[in-house]
Amino acid sequence: EDSSWHENPQPQWIVPISGRWFVETMDGMRVEMGPGELSFGGDQGCQWVDGKRGHRSGALGNEPTVLMLIQVESAPVN
Q1: What does the CA dihedral 46, 11, 71, 67 come to, rounded to 10 degrees?
Q2: In angstroms, rounded to a whole number, what is the distance separating the alpha carbons of residues 72 and 14?
Q3: Of 3, 19, 22, 40, which has the fewest beta carbons less than 10 angstroms from its beta carbon?
Q4: What pLDDT, in 10s, does the model give residues 35-74?
Q5: What is the pLDDT of residue 28?
Q6: CA angle 19, 29, 6 (to 5 degrees)
Q7: Radius of gyration of the chain from Cα atoms?
Q8: pLDDT of residue 2
Q9: What whole-number distance in Å separates Cα of residue 68 and Cα of residue 55?
Q10: Contact in structure between 46 and 53 (CB atoms under 8 Å)
Q11: What is the predicted pLDDT for the residue at 73?
């Protein structure tokens, strides 16, 4: 089930605990993840482009998806 385009409320790590889910970025890249995989959401302050802003995400399959979100004050520096 897809969600509408949105940004993460603040920089956050997303840790799938059970089930599978996907994230699709504005440029069309789509990643599917499950338990044991991590994602960093740092898309705050995006501009609307072609009706898209931030990302879309949603659950995959019939198993309920449970995510742990760890919000941080600022994005990590490379």
Answers
A1: 70
A2: 11
A3: 3
A4: 999 999 999 888 999 999 999 999 999 999 999 999 998 7
A5: 92
A6: 70
A7: 13
A8: 61
A9: 18
A10: yes
A11: 84
Encoded tokens for 65: 């998806």
Q: How far is CA 77 from CA 11, 32, 42, in A?
A: 12, 25, 12
Return the DSSP state at 4.
-
Rounded Cα distance between 73 and 24, Å, is 24
Q: The whole model's pTM is what?
A: 0.79
Other C-beta atoms lying within 10 Å of the C-beta of residue 2 = 10
Q: Is the pLDDT of residue 21 over 90?
A: yes
Taking the C-alpha atoms of residue 46 and residue 23, their distance in angstroms, rounded to an integer, is 16
